[in-house]
Amino acid sequence: MTAEARPGAPVPSTDPRTGTVRAHPAREAGPADVDRAVTAAARTLDALADRPRRAALLHTAADLLDAARPEILAAADAETALGETRLTGELARTTHQLRTFAETVADGGYLGVRIDRADPATGRPDLRRTKAPLGVAAVFAAGNFPLAFSVPGGDTASALAAGCPVVVKAHPGHPGTGELCARLLRRAAERVGLPADVLATVHGFAAGTALVRHPLTAAVGFTGSLRGGRALHDLAAARPRPIPFHGELGSLNPVVVTERAAATRAEEIGAGLAASFTLGRGQFCTKPGLVLVPAGHPALEKAAVAAAAQAPAGPLLDPRIRDGYLTGAAHRAALPGVEVLLAPGPAPTPEAPLAVRPGILATTADDLHEDLLEECFGPLTVLVRYRDHTDLHAVLTRLPGTLTATLHHAPDEPPADTRALLARLTPLAGRLVLNSWPTGVAVTPAMQHGGPYPAATTPTTSVGTAAIHRWLRPVTYQDAPQDLLPPELRD
Question: Which of 52, 231, 304, 421 could form a disulfide with 270 if both were Cys (CB 3.0 to 4.6 A apart)?
Answer without folding.
Answer: 304
